[in-house]
């Protein structure tokens, strides 16, 4: 039911945002650009205010003077500059084409993010930027702009660039302030800035509102600015930010079609080709990169598993990480290994610690943990759509929190850590021993059948599903292959050796590592 409702809210979001340029075009005939921008963002900000206050109270967040100044700056950039330019550009251009041009703002967010938040500018992002800019040039038609002086789309482009700056700067404090509060407060503050301009220039504020113009004003303020955002937040809640962000792919398509139906604007071949290139840049950047830069398995990132300086002295405790296939007995091996070594064992305990820090229950953390079922969708979210939506995936926040907890546990003392990509998180730490436990599929299925009380077919499906999610989780967050031998110090097939014998082999390997390094240290002394 949640998936179905999530899809409904994604469609509603796309429709609300996809009709924005059309509504602005219609409303722009009754109001000035500054007047309409003031009215729609003031009303929209007030509509979002209850959500913002509720979110801040729920998270017990108190905004400081610095936070209010920060939000005010965002309001100036977004409302007073970007959205005023956007309204002027829409008034002077084709609404459908304006929607396509503005949909390129995540491309500029990638560039701003490289310089401001130091996000990596990967080959995939560069491919996205190149294809999107080519598509943008086809849609905007620079030759026509020069020959005919049609500057409307250039103004929309300036609005898109400044909006991407707003999005990038918003990332710096969105975790503390929250999306609802950041949008609501910046909308209201920015609208008051526009009001000040109207006041000092003696521009119209409420004049022009009549029985005819009130409806497009209500639509742009309530449906586009308010309802659209609420639907998007609801879509995130029901289907996750990655899936919800697909509304931003649908939006320009919806705008192009509806602009043709409502405003009678022609759907040109240039618009279709340009939009196709922009979408291709977002969706196909990964496959294009793999086609242009074919890599062998050995060329993918490999962890440095060369023995670091290892000893059992205080301040440099031994940490054993256990990665494992589902049903292989890796958790049982890790627990018994910790008992033999006389050190703490951490598995779901890490999720409990993360939940306490983030104010989440263990069930809520488990729901998000290693839940990347489709790396293609999440790569789209990571490389493109989150830059348009401003949303932050809860999974990403939890992974960062898990990383922090794991590093703290490793510094605290010797321990055994199961899963959570601990081998990658601690890859630069000395005195870390990384295990991977595999098993025969039939042996694993029998263990799962006994533990979960299911039939063999169900057990096999569970094993395939969990292992796939672990592999996708590893590739998404680390760029490495889960289970690839070069990323571990020791790999064991528990179905061949048995769990008791695996424990003996692991203890022997750890002792050999320690003895080897101690001897090396003594030789160097």
From TrEMBL:
The keyword Acetylation does not apply. It is found in: Membrane. Its main location: membrane. InterPro entries: AA-Vitamin_Transporters, EamA_dom, EmrE-like, P-loop_NTPase. It is a multi-pass membrane protein. Keywords: Membrane, Transmembrane, Transmembrane helix. Residues 6-139, 152-284 form the EamA domain. GO terms for cellular component: membrane. This is Permease of the drug/metabolite transporter (DMT) superfamily. PANTHER family: EAMA DOMAIN-CONTAINING PROTEIN (PTHR32322:SF2), INNER MEMBRANE TRANSPORTER (PTHR32322). Belongs to the EamA transporter family. The chain crosses the membrane at residues 7-27, 33-56, 68-89, 95-114, 126-145, 151-169, 181-201, 213-232, 244-263, 269-288. The keyword tRNA processing does not apply.
